[in-house]
């Protein structure tokens, strides 16, 4: 992870030095490289991320691309947004909200996260803070060789009522090895040592509970040979958590966690069904591994934002 972060920051600081003229015509070249067989898949994702209606309105507080300045405290968000905005005209305007966004903004805005559902039209998803959220693993441990235990490590604060409830119910359960890794002076009986991703991969079941917004570990868990265990997600990111199907992409548990033991026992005894869920999870992950396609989808999502807010931002492209 450390090496990935170094490369990420080095590349992005270097990118800030590239003159804007370098990007002139680059979007058109990327778009022309889209194969006919890819168009339907690409446009389906673009329309999922950007649900704005034609003639959507932005207000006079919107930022201009050529005046969008470096944000030290939120630098990963800044880097991931400016990386693609630079393909468009500098006078184009946009709204954005950085951080863990759980509410739908009043104006069309680029966000990392949004509530799942049909009333999230103003939340236009982009792949923001990707260095933290988009990490996948190569898991060499077959499902059958893993321990029949639900494993989970997470920070648990007062606002994480769902995580607190889970620990209250299952901290000492024989089928669970779970706990909190932050010492905030509350519930010290739940404190456990941190565990690496590799340590997590020794277990058949890995807990993925939402925190400030989405469950950050869900991406790498779904790329592993372990099963993600969680309730139906309430929030989503570029990973399209809202499209995941319960007991098809992950092991679904009730919001009050009452069926957890039943689900763990079932998939332990029905390994063929567990392996099918893992296969489906891997297929979902695969669509995020093509860097060229990810770039094009990001650019088209932004282009659609400008088009539907009645801005012509494609001069020179």
List keywords for this structure.
317 residues, alpha/beta, 5-stranded parallel sheet, 4-stranded mixed sheet, 36% helix, 13% strand
Concise structural overview:
This protein has 317 residues and is α/β, with parallel strands linked by helices. The protein has helices spanning 2-15, 26-32, 36-49, 75-85, 130-133, 161-170, 197-200, 218-222, 260-269, 271-286, 291-308; strands at 63-64, 93-96, 109-111, 114-115, 123-125, 147-154, 176-180, 203-207, 227-230, 235-236, 251-252.
Q: Explain this structure to me?
A:
The chain is an alpha/beta fold and 317 residues long. Helices cover 36% and strands 13% of the residues. It is globular. The protein starts with a helix and ends in a 9-residue tail after the last helix.
Strand order of the largest sheet: 7-6-8-9-11
The major β-sheet equals: 5 strands, parallel
State the share of residues found in helices, binned by percent.
25-40%
Number of helices: 11
Classification by helices and strands: alpha/beta
Shape: globular
Amino- and carboxy-terminal Cα gap: 36 Å
Q: How many strands?
A: 11
Radius of gyration, taken over Cα atoms and rounded to an integer in Å: 21 Å
Average pLDDT figure: 92
User: What string gives the helices and strands in order?
Assistant: HHHEHEEEEHEHEHEHEEEHHH
Low-confidence stretches: none
Percent in strands: 5-15%
Task: Give the topology, please.
Blueprint: H1 2-15, H2 26-32, H3 36-49, E1 63-64, H4 75-85, E2 93-96, E3 109-111, E4 114-115, E5 123-125, H5 130-133, E6 147-154, H6 161-170, E7 176-180, H7 197-200, E8 203-207, H8 218-222, E9 227-230, E10 235-236, E11 251-252, H9 260-269, H10 271-286, H11 291-308
Parallel strand pairs: 2-3, 3-5, 6-7, 6-8, 8-9, 9-11
Antiparallel strand pairs: 1-2, 4-10
């Amino acid at each position: 992870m450390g090496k990935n972060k170094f490369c990420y920051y080095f590349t992005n600081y270097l990118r800030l030095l590239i003159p804007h003229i370098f990007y002139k015509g680059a979007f058109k070249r990327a778009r022309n490289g889209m194969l006919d067989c890819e168009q339907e898949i690409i446009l389906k994702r673009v329309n999922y991320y950007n649900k704005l209606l034609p003639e959507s309105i932005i207000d006079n507080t919107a930022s201009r691309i050529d005046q969008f300045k470096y944000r030290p405290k939120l630098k990963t968000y800044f880097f991931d947004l400016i990386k693609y905005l630079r393909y468009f005209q500098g006078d184009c305007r946009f709204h954005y909200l950085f951080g863990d966004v759980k509410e739908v903004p009043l104006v069309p805005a680029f966000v990392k996260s949004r509530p799942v559902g049909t009333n999230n039209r103003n939340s236009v998803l982009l792949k923001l803070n990707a260095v933290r959220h988009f990490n996948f693993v190569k898991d060499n441990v077959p499902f059958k060789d893993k321990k029949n235990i639900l494993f989970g490590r997470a920070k648990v604060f007062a606002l994480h009522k769902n995580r607190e409830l889970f620990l209250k119910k299952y901290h000492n359960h024989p089928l669970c090895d779970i706990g909190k890794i932050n010492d905030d002076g509350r519930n010290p009986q739940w404190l456990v040592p941190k565990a690496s991703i590799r340590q997590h991969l020794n277990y058949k079941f890995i807990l993925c509970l939402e925190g400030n917004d989405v469950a950050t570990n869900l991406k790498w868990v779904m790329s592993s040979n372990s099963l993600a265990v969680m309730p139906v997600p309430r929030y989503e990111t570029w990973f399209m958590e809202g499209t995941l199907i319960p007991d098809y992409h992950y092991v679904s548990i009730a919001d009050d966690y009452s069926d957890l033991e039943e689900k763990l026992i079932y998939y332990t005894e029905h390994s063929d069904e567990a392996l099918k869920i893992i296969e489906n999870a891997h297929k979902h992950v695969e669509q995020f591994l093509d860097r060229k396609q990810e770039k094009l989808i990001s650019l088209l999502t932004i282009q659609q934002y400008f088009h539907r807010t009645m801005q012509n931002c494609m001069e020179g492209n």
